[in-house]
Task: structure prediction
Amino acid sequence: MRIFCKEGINYNEGDPNYDLFKLAIRCSAKRLFPNFSFLDAPFNKKFYREGDYNSEVAYMGCRTRVMANNYDPTKAVVCGRGNLSFTSINLPRLAIESNRDFDVFYKKLDAMMDLVSRQLLHRFKIQCSKKGRNYPFLMGQGIWIDSDDLGPDDSVAEVLKHGTLSIGFIGLAETMKALTGRHHGEDETVREQAFAIIKHMREVCDRKSAETGLNFTLLATPAEGLSGRFVKIDREKYGKLPGITDRDYYTNSFHVPVYYPIGAFEKIAIEAPYHDLTNAGHISYVELDGDTAKNPEAFESVIRFMKEAGVGYGSVNHPVDRDPVCGYTGVIDDVCPRCGRREGEPVTIERLNELRMRFPSVPVPCDCNR
Ligand SMILES: [Zn+2]
Result:
């Protein structure tokens, strides 16, 4: 669930739908959703044409973004296409195996991106071997661009070329730890080195697009399941490396680790530039303590800072508890502020955001099943 934010529509006082922006903030401060997508971020704004919803960059589920169209630049639109598949790279493992040598790391990264792109093309070939009748809704009903004239026995190959093939990554923070001993939240120089790695990955994606005439895009992988699985495998293989494999999860995509003490605004400022690079999708989270429903102004200042910093898609995490007996929603410590009932007498308080607060690198299970 997400709301578009756009100057002239709903972002500023006096905009026709400003009241809806305010309501969205109140709702999210209470229940974690909606998330906020920013149509004025430069990489989203360049596609925007007034009055044309097909030009409004949309984020599906927890972050997926499909917009530019290298196969047919006249059809760089939201509707009628989608992401065909994505594969994520375990960046920390490449870094561990590089023994702090950036040249070795980049060689390994290039080799891995080449392998992943060939794997994506292989999968694409299998998808392309299908006929119109295999997609009775998407193709049969003309949902996908250029599928209107497709018969049941026609190949879907040309139509699918409008879709995207995405290369993802996780654990930039642990990668920098392995390469330099510090992550990009801790050190200015490391911040530049980290950005250069992801910029390089985007350039490789753009080059693959140019070479194939298809849409290779770079994804800031959410990796709810993967981030735990990768670190477990790597811990068995390389041991418990401080700051790298000694936690339950690798950090989500380019995020500054949630366990690292840093101000909300600084975290946003560090992460925002990566939104421009990750054209297959991205999201930044900020953790706020306490009951944000009682302080929507603080919540709004975070959202506005995200927009000004050039974030494409953002969300605020905060604790949300609910007393199933009296229905009170907010932060409940031991005693419910509404009915005075103590935890466990007779039922347990629902901690809606417990998973997200306990393992904050793992976003709350999103609505797209990734
Ligand atoms: Zn109560």
